[in-house]
Each structure stands twice: as C-alpha cells, then as structure tokens.
Write a structure and sequence with these properties.
12% helix, single chain, mainly beta, seven-stranded parallel β-sheet
C-alpha cells in the first residue's frame, strides 16, 4: 500500500510538473528499465524509443534524469527518436534534456555517456563506439555529432571508429558538426556552422570549416 501511494505521488507530481508529458510511455520505459516507481526517464509527445532487449538506459545518481522530446513554451512537438541496438547503452550522469526533433542512434555495443545540459531541436547524435558529453553542456539546434567515418575516400583512409569526448561547460553553436576522434576541452565554444575535425583546447573559441582557433582564454555563461 505504501509503494502504491508513493507511486501515485510521483506520477501526479510529474504529470502536473511537466506539461504534456506522455505519461503512458513514461511509465512503460521506467518499468522496463527498472526505475519504477522512481521515474527517472520522462518522455514527451511524438517520441519513439526503439530499444533492443539487450540495449540499456542507465541513470546514475538519485538526482539524475533524462528528458526525451521536450519543447519550449508554446512550441510544437516534432518526431523525436532514440534507438539503442543490441548491447548499446545510454548512460546519464546528470539532468539532460533532448529537445523535440532530436535523433539519437546508439549502435551495437556502443556507449553514449552524458552529464547535465541540453540538446536543442533537431540535434543528431550517431554513436558507433563511445561518445562522452560532460556536465553543463549546451548543444544548439541542428548540431550533428558522430564518432564514426561511415565512408572513406581512397588514399585518405583513417580508422573509422574513435572515441569522441566533449568536456564540461562546452557551448556548441547552431548546425556545427563534431566528428570522430575529437576531444573538446572544458569551457570551449564551437561557433555556428563549424566543422570540428581536430581537438579543441580548453577555453578556446573555434570557427570555420575545418574549425580553427579564433580566440583563447574565453569564458561564456
């Protein structure tokens, strides 16, 4: 009886605290992943979760939460997708929101690890090996992040799968691309439309195609 009462308080608190939450999908994924009645994964309208039997969503910490498909105030909901293939894993270490329109694909045996922050509308993350995103990261609309060179150019072949690391307090501008093997240092800023193919030192502002350092020792809030 006590567990049922705790569950009811949790559900009603979520329902009234978050507008237009898809309560049935939220309950289903939390029961499936063993987070019932805590409710650590919040699912919003037009969000589809395709997860294999051996795919995992791991939420670390009592305060950690995953929001899938959120929309801004008075904004509309578009199709949002999370796909986790056999042996793939999404690890959440903080409170992170994927806004509506995002597509997150985690391949066989791959791991996507995220801290706190958000990914705005229409962000595309393709994880084939290992991607880590630190705390307090802001990812703007239309950004693409991938740790794989899915195709190669003859004479320019490089290893196709390399870990991709994004540090803490990183700001990534609209429609930037972050590619395989890149390590972005803490406090870095990626300009809108930049294509990042090499490491970015901490507290550096980079821009261009390919991205180059424009300014060092930057700070942003």
């Amino acid at each position: 009886m006590k567990n049922l009462w705790m569950f009811w308080e949790r559900v009603t608190g979520i329902f009234f605290g978050y507008k237009r939450l898809d309560i049935l999908k939220t309950l289903y994924i939390n029961i499936l992943q063993g987070y019932f009645p805590s409710i650590k994964i919040l699912v919003y309208p037009k969000t589809k979760i395709g997860k294999s039997k051996k795919g995992k969503i791991t939420i670390n910490g009592a305060k950690a939460r995953l929001h899938l498909g959120t929309a801004f105030e008075r904004g509309k909901y578009n199709s949002t997708g999370l796909k986790i293939d056999e042996g793939g894993e999404l690890i959440v270490n903080g409170i992170f929101s994927f806004h509506t329109g995002c597509e997150i694909n985690i391949a066989d045996g791959a791991k996507l690890e995220i801290g706190s922050g958000y990914a705005a509308n229409d962000v595309d993350i393709s994880c084939y090996n290992y991607i880590k995103i630190g705390d307090y990261v802001a990812i703007s609309k239309g950004v693409a992040i991938s740790d794989s060179n899915e195709h190669s150019i003859k004479g320019m072949e490089e290893p196709g799968l390399k870990p991709l690391i994004i540090g803490e307090h990183v700001g990534i501008g609209m429609r930037a691309m972050i590619l395989t093997g890149v390590n972005i240092g803490n406090g870095a800023i990626i300009a809108a439309g930049a294509v990042v193919t090499r490491d970015v030192p901490a507290k550096c502002f980079v821009a261009g195609v390919p991205a180059k350092i424009i300014k060092e020792e930057v700070e942003w809030s």
